[in-house]
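Q: Could you fold this chain for me?
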Amino acid sequence: MYRRRRRAYFVMMGACLVLFVSAWAFVRLWSMPAAIAMCVVAMVIPPVAAMVANRKGPEDRWWDDPTAESRPRSRPGKDGLAGPTGPTGPTGDPESDAWWDELDGKKRRR
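A: Sure. Below is the predicted structure, expressed as structure tokens.
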């Protein structure tokens, strides 16, 4: 799936370049409004291409994966360094700890 999205991105960006270059290379000689319209279309293509290339596919379960083992734990400990298996305790910052617990699916009582 990643290769299809990457290919679509490059095709769309290539179309953007073709539109822009052809608009000012030879279309402007026949019709200035058509050249401007081509540039407007070329201006819209890059954000759409970025959204297509970066969208989450159905098999890309990187955020809402229900299993805790499949999520990497790279939160730093109190000393700022994470061990090979992740931190062993709270970071010392209550706001940060609450945020990480929310991400991990844990409920904290205050």
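A (continued): The chain has a mean pLDDT of 76.
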